[in-house]
Protein: CRISPR type III-B/RAMP module-associated protein Cmr5
Organism: Sulfurospirillum tamanense
Amino acid sequence: MSRQTIEQQRAAHALKAVQGVKSDKKFTSLANGLPTMVHVNGLGQAIAFCKGKTEEPYKEIVKMLSEWLCGKGRPFENTKPQDILTTITSRDMHTYRLAQVEAMAYLAWVKKFAKALIGEEKEGDDGKTYS
């Protein structure tokens, strides 16, 4: 039986999650920007912002991040991923900070896999978006 490092576990979960993404390159754009949003505004505000959106990429990234943070051995273990905002607002600051650091590490993999598997939109000099 081989043991995976936490980094390998993050990568494996992120890869599987990104492979299941049904939305388009807007997901990659969101995956690129979400780590910065978490860093600047905090995990709770970033997730609340995404949950307030109705588009599929926002729902998908909140789902994958919530499932990761609520998994075994993670900061929000033994909570339901659907209750991520309740969990964030009910935990102590130490747990919140652990979750935020874990979210940033996980989202780095999501960002890499989204670029590799889905691709990116690029804006040309004419202001149009190209794939």
